[in-house]
Amino acid sequence: MRKASVVLAFLALVLALAQALSLDLRPYRVQVVEGKEVYEENPLSVKPGDVLEWRLVAENRSQGTLRQVVLVIPIPKETFYLEGSAKPLVLGSVTVRPEFSFDGGKTFGFPPLKKRVRVVENGKEVEKEVEVKPEEYTHARWVVPEVPKGTKVQVSLRTAVK
After folding, report:
1. Number of CB atoms found within 10 A of residue 95's CB
2. For residue 134, what is the DSSP state?
3. Model's pTM, two decimal places?
4. How many percent of the chain have pLDDT more than 70?
5. How far apart are the first and last CA of the chain?
6. How far is CA 57 from CA 75, 114, 122, 134, in A?
7. 114-151 as b/e: b if 16+ CB within 10 A
8. 36 within 8 A of 119, measured Cβ to Cβ
9. Strands 79-81 and 89-91: what pairing?
10. pLDDT tens figures, 50-87
């Protein structure tokens, strides 16, 4: 019985947060026309080489300040992250740098990310630490310390279609 009440309390908290924080993630195809960037919202089709800008807008609709708000943009498998396109979020005197994941969002860190791989050297299998290429990133996130009531924040990144 106690387990059920803990689950219900957790679900109530998730529902309250969902109502408190509005999230809107949209893709925009980025094209250069006559030397200027032009954005097409929610393109119906894309082709290899197309650049997409993913914009996540979060709005605090609660009655107070939200703390430790985690904003995540997943990088679709059919695309790869364009290095340097996820910019830090500046809120007053606070700068929130994006962190990245290469393991489906299980772990995050600041670049350069490292992973351990098994390779064969001189006929012997050894484990080595290698740098993860930005093209291997699966998610980006920004952990925002505070979002005051009524405030909107936007983060974005760019990907290219494989």
Report:
1. 9
2. G
3. 0.84
4. 88
5. 50
6. 16, 30, 51, 23
7. eeeeeeeeeeeeeeeeeebebebbbbbbbebeebeeee
8. no
9. unpaired
10. 999 999 999 999 999 999 999 999 999 999 999 999 99
